[in-house]
């Protein structure tokens, strides 16, 4: 078991035990059942016999990691923006994409994003993040004033303010995002505009989709190369095979044979290119390309986007002992 997986299990265990203790006064029987499931009879000697014999949980402020929470909030915001862009262009999360671009506001921003980069890439199924400096000319931003909010404040000066905001240069917009407010000249007077009172929008980039949330902007590369499409087909196949394994009642460690039926040459070529990955992920000892699936074989149809065609997948459990005997002979 990897350290990450062990840490995940330990975290889940701690959360469930704490929930059992928290709910004990209001849901005593369910809390007792949950506690008993977490502490089998063999472990009871090291723990109180009942959840009702444990101390009620108390908060431990020393366990709060403010910087970690800040980094995870950033990861969640970026993930939400990119997933929305995927939905906008109808690209499934299982389809890998090449990269995202994120303008860096300051060193702290870059450091926090770097710390959660692997989490973001994994959640979004994107291969890399490109960090853009404040002087980048790739993502061009504009400021749109919120007339409903600013109108009552500035009245007759609103038109002048709108012209000033819409004419801001890129470096001025970056400074606005960093400070959260901007002081502008309106004739003989000065006024302060808050970032929450405007909307920062980005111009479209060919082959990219751009979205913003306050000071945060991300651009998603939606160009699909042949290699990325093939990876997408492989991930779709793996997902369907794993579901089919569960529906067929196979054990997690059972080895299988795959039967792949498709009359489309491009689909077959993509599957052959990704065969090693598919076999590794599904515990397949072999993959057979057939015109029709064997009778009484558990099967599933996979719908694939053009240029590929739909695919029929069947599987059969492999007896590894007999396979070894055949190889020995």
What report would you give on this structure?
The structure is a single chain. Helices cover 45% and strands 22% of the residues. The chain folds into four domains: 3-58, no CATH class; 66-137 and 204-222; 141-200, Signal recognition particle alu RNA binding heterodimer, srp9/1 (2-Layer Sandwich); 227-328, 60s Ribosomal Protein L30, Chain: A, CATH 3.30.1330. Helix 1 packs antiparallel against helix 2 and helix 9 crosses helix 10 (265-273). By secondary structure, it is of the alpha+beta class. Strands 2-1-8-7 form a four-stranded mixed beta sheet, covered by helices on one side. A four-stranded mixed beta sheet has the order 10-9-12-11, covered by helices on one side. The chain has helices at residues 3-23, 28-38, 66-88, 107-115, 117-124, 147-154, 158-166, 170-179, 226-247, 265-273, 275-282, 320-328; strands at residues 97-103, 126-132, 141-145, 181-186, 189-194, 198-202, 208-213, 216-221, 256-261, 284-290, 299-302, 311-317.
Short summary:
With 329 residues, this protein is of the alpha+beta class.
């Amino acid at each position: 078991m990897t350290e990450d997986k062990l840490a995940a299990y330990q975290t889940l265990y701690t959360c469930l035990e704490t929930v059992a203790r928290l709910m004990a006064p209001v849901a005593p029987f369910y809390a007792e059942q949950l506690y008993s499931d977490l502490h089998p009879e063999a472990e009871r000697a090291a723990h109180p016999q009942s959840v009702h014999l444990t101390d009620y949980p108390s908060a431990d402020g020393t366990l709060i990691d403010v910087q970690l929470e800040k980094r995870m909030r950033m990861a969640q915001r970026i993930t939400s923006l990119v997933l929305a862009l995927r939905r906008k262009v109808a690209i499934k999360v299982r389809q890998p994409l090449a990269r995202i671009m994120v303008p860096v506001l300051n060193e702290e921003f870059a450091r926090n994003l770097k710390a959660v980069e692997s989490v973001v890439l994994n959640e979004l199924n994107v291969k890399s993040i490109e960090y853009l400096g404040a002087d980048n000319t790739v993502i061009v931003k504009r400021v749109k004033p919120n007339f409903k909010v600013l109108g009552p404040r500035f009245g007759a000066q609103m038109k002048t303010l709108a012209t000033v905001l819409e004419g801001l240069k890129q470096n001025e917009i970056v400074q606005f995002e960093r400070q959260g407010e901007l002081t502008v000249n309106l004739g003989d007077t000065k006024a302060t505009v808050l970032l929450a009172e405007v909307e920062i929008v980005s111009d479209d980039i060919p082959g990219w989709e751009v979205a913003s949330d306050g000071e945060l902007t991300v651009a998603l590369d939606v160009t699909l190369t042949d290699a990325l499409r093939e990876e997408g087909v492989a991930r779709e196949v793996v997902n369907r095979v794993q579901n089919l394994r569960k529906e067929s009642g196979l054990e997690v460690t059972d080895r299988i044979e795959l039967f792949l039926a498709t009359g489309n040459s491009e689909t077959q070529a993509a599957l052959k290119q990704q065969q090693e990955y598919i076999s590794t992920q599904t515990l397949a000892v072999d993959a057979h390309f057939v015109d029709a699936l064997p009778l009484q074989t558990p099967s599933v149809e996979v719908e694939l986007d053009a240029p590929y065609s739909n695919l029929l997948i069947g599987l059969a459990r492999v007896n590894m002992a007999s396979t070894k005997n055949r190889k020995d002979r």
